[in-house]
Amino acid sequence: MRKISILLILSLAVVLFSSDNCFTQESVEHFKKLLESQGFTVQEGSLYLFNPADLFGNYILPSCFCNNADSPYAVYLIPEGRVR
Fold it and tell me: How confident is the model at residue 60 (pLDDT cuts 50, 70, 90)?
């Protein structure tokens, strides 16, 4: 349930902040402090781009069914949460 809440909060933040030119460093810091004040752990993650055909060729994926070769595929790499 907590993961769903975090996902909803982050999705809402992206929609609200990206709709206008208010996605500034100050607004991001304010949002992070707001999350931390409510008990959330805020950590920086990264984005990993990959090609499903390469994963299939290296026997990692069983097929490339539904592969859209013209579109990039990405995975968010998020560090494990810390318990306070």
Answer: confident
